[in-house]
Design goal:
The complex is a heterodimer of chains A (373) and B (389). Chain A has 373 residues and is α/β, with parallel strands linked by helices. Chain A has 12 helices and 12 strands. In chain B, 58% of the residues are buried. Chain B has 389 residues and is α/β, with parallel strands linked by helices. Classes of the chains: A alpha/beta (373), B alpha/beta (389).
Chain lengths: 373, 389
């Protein structure tokens, strides 16, 4: 069988796209081992949420729904954002995405436009590079010092803007380390955004897991909220992880092209998932504080163990992840793999030499760390 | 500056939004079956939420579902695929087509597309920066995709050929002979074939569905999409797939992971139950559509309208040239005056101002009422014009 030259060209073109071929910390089937590579701890859905989905599908909610999502869920998401301080986003300014990667893709591609430009932290979730690689964007990278948990310093953000960047992608917390901007830094970034008339895609998906330090969303600074597009997962820890519910919140004018593109990609987010998520706020209120306390305590314990083992602990404030720089990352990876653990490789984020462990309620991170001794 | 009139997908969603403002709207445009998802599939989804709530899925979908899809395309479409490497589960047929286009087409590449066609192909092409090369089809030929016209559209920049059978919106079914000719053309000019099989289970009047990839020499260069939406009335669940040769599917999988994750676990288990179970519900729906088609076509005959005869699918594409009114104006008038939503042909391709797309996707009684309301407007239109010719 001869190989088609056209097929071969297509393959070579895609394989030559170094952004597109970035490996994500793929969720692994459970039987492969203990998966500590995930962004959010997985948990079973609460009965209330299952029941909400059941009632919806039994009553005929099995058809297409509005592209941006069902209104009760968008209202709930607007409330969720408001609880995080970003109260300027109404239900009409929220779109329900099929998970956070779709939110990233829609935000990056539609805000930048074909052939557009975007400035990214040099260390950022690999899904960002991947989303940018689907069609060529001009990327500039903002330096990310290791001693800040790979979060760009405000001065570097200012330098990027001074150099001409007008669309930024920022994570707070960092998806690799959980490092966050302080409230003062967020205020400074807001001033820069206003001064340079720039726009920011702000990934705050891990913000609910911040502990020990105050968190401020850039979307909560009302002076610049019109220039800030928020993305993230909704109500983490309620079991929605497997149902793929994310959000994009933005000024209505920005949301319109994103809505159009969402229609082109997937028409709407899965209806049963949306109806399960409608009940997530009450479950979240019941569970979250205890979950956050537990994960933070487990993380603090893991930090101590990691230090005793000689690993460098990277700065972070998110209870659900722990990033380490072991003395020999390859040896560490090999030992973890032999023990059946899967962790996220910092190299795919742009930080070779580091590993990210998910902190989960079963304290699997402690068992994993034992293998680094 | 005057606001640009809405077109394509945006126009359709504007019409849908208006239709929702009436409490007696009859929708005869949108491709959303009126049947609810069969009960055993709904139950499977709820059980999955309980039992697999903390499972993550790989981006290409859970293996049992990929195995079921491989079994389905082997059994029904005559396509042999390896579920490990040649199947990717998608968030519906829509995402499947988006991924197929992005896999095959880059900026400046040409994709040959018989017209009219489903409007989001153009949207996906625009996103990729590709160039759509339209091959016209005509109501007088039942919208047949003529291989000779396709041949004339091929240029050195042609990268692929899109084949949709039964077609949306024309309902044309590509015959085995024509499909063979089209595959031969693709081999001769080294084109990638993008096949949309989403209506493959809805064939009428003894016409056969021929899957492009099932023909000799086609599989190595064909990406085929399908979904649960139409066959199992699962439009809201968002679960579909692409199958194709492993080297191309590896690239499609990379793009898939960049765009979004796998469908929700619950939707995947619902899809698995649908594919592993009986297809009796699908056959019942097909028989129902067959009866409804008769109702619609008889009403169109009574109104004095021409159409391409729909031997498959869930639509009829109606020629309104004899009304002397453009499709957007006519659709708007039917919606404003009678609260019946029909899709304008121009939303499927430029220059199709003389066509409407109507579906069979309402209960018979509702269809009859919608058609009666439509006739009121059509009678007025013809009266204003002075004749039906």
């Amino acid at each position: 069988m001869s190989t088609s030259r056209t097929v071969q060209n297509v393959i070579e073109r895609h394989q030559g796209n170094s952004l597109l071929t970035v490996q994500l910390p793929h969720p692994m089937p459970a039987q492969v081992g203990l998966d500590l590579s995930v962004d959010q701890p997985a948990s079973f859905l609460d009965y209330e949420m299952v029941e909400s989905a059941r009632q919806a599908v039994e009553s005929g909610q099995t058809h297409y729904v509005d592209v941006p999502g069902v209104m009760p869920l968008r209202e709930a998401l607007a409330g969720y954002l408001g609880e995080m301080g970003a109260s300027g986003y109404g239900a009409g300014e929220v779109l329900v995405s099929a998970g956070v990667q779709e939110a990233r893709f829609l935000a990056i591609q539609m805000m930048a436009g074909l052939g557009g430009e975007i400035a990214l932290p040099a260390v950022v979730h690999p899904g960002v590079r991947k989303a940018a690689g689907v069609r060529s964007l001009k990327l500039t990278f903002i330096p990310t010092p290791r001693d800040r948990g790979y979060l760009p310093a405000v001065a570097e953000v200012a330098a990027a803007l001074a150099a001409g960047a007008r669309l930024l992608y920022l994570e707070s917390p960092s998806r690799l380390t959980g490092a966050i901007y302080s409230p003062d830094e967020v205020q400074e970034i807001a001033k820069l955004i206003a001064r340079f008339e720039a726009r920011v895609i702000w990934d705050q998906g891990l913000a609910p897991w911040v502990a020990g330090r105050p968190y401020l969303s850039l979307g909560s600074i009302t002076d610049v909220a019109d220039s800030v597009l928020l993305i993230g997962e909704a109500w983490p820890g309620t079991g929605l992880e497997s149902l793929m519910v994310g959000y994009v919140a933005a000024h209505a004018e920005w949301l319109e092209p994103i809505r159009s593109q969402k229609q082109i990609i997937s028409i709407c987010t899965s209806t049963p998932s949306q109806y399960a998520a409608v009940k997530a706020p009450s479950v979240y209120r019941k569970l979250h504080e205890a979950q956050l306390g537990l994960l933070w305590a487990l993380r603090e314990r893991a930090v101590m163990v990691a230090r005793q083992l000689g690993a460098e602990v990277l700065d972070g404030s998110a209870a659900n992840i722990l990033a380490l720089a072991p003395a020999d990352v390859q040896v560490a990876q090999q030992r973890l793999a032999e023990a059946g653990f899967v962790v996220a490789d910092g190299a795919t984020f742009g930080a070779p030499g580091s590993l990210r462990f998910a902190v989960t309620p079963d304290n699997a991170v402690a068992r994993a760390l034992c293998h680094l001794a | 500056m005057a606001k640009k009139p809405k077109q394509g997908t945006d126009l359709l969603y504007t019409l849908i939004a208006q239709a929702r403002t009436y409490n007696d709207t009859i929708i005869m445009g949108r491709g959303d079956p009126d049947f609810d998802t069969p009960p055993h599939i709904r139950a499977a989804a709820i059980e999955a939420m309980k039992g697999h709530g903390n499972d993550y899925s790989p981006p290409e979908g859970i293996l049992p579902l990929r195995q079921a899809i491989a079994g389905r395309v082997r059994r029904i479409n005559g396509i042999e695929v390896d579920p490990e490497t040649e199947v990717v589960v998608t968030n519906g047929g829509q995402e499947a087509l988006f991924l197929m286009v992005l896999t095959a087409i880059c900026q400046g590449d040409e994709l040959i597309v018989p017209e009219p066609n489903y409007n989001t192909y153009a949207d996906a092409m625009n996103f990729a920066g590709g160039v759509k090369v339209a091959v016209p089809t005509y109501a007088s030929e039942d919208f047949r995709v003529d291989p000779e016209r396709v041949r004339k559209a091929i240029t050195p920049r042609s990268r692929g050929l899109l084949l949709v059978s039964p077609n949306n919106p024309t309902a044309n079914v590509i015959t085995r002979e024509d499909m063979r000719s089209l595959v031969s053309l693709a081999q001769e000019h080294d084109l990638i074939l993008l096949a949309d099989d989403i209506y493959d289970l809805f064939m009428y009047d003894g016409h056969e569905h021929v899957s492009t990839a099932s023909l000799p020499g086609a599989k190595e260069r064909t990406l085929t999409l399908n979904a649960l939406s139409k066959a199992f009335s699962m439009t809201g669940w968002r679960c579909g797939w692409v199958v194709g040769p492993a080297p191309l599917m590896a690239q499609l999988k990379q793009i898939k992971a960049a765009v979004n994750a796998a469908p929700p676990i619950a939707a995947q288990y619902a899809a698995l139950t649908a594919l592993e179970g009986s297809f009796d519900d699908v056959e019942r729906m097909r028989q129902t559509y067959l009866r409804r088609r008769k109702v619609v076509l008889e009403a169109l005959d009574a109104m004095g309208l021409q159409y391409g005869f729909p031997h498959g699918g869930q639509f009829v594409f109606v020629d309104i040239a004899n009304t002397g009114v453009g499709c957007v104006e006519l659709v708007q008038r039917i919606l404003d005056e009678q609260h019946v939503l029909i899709y304008p042909g121009s939303s499927f391709a430029a220059g199709l101002d003389n066509y409407l797309r109507m579906t069979f996707l309402q209960p018979e009684e509702k269809l009859r009422e919608g058609l009666a309301r439509m006739k009121i407007v059509m009678d007025k239109v013809f009266a204003e014009k002075g004749s039906r010719s």
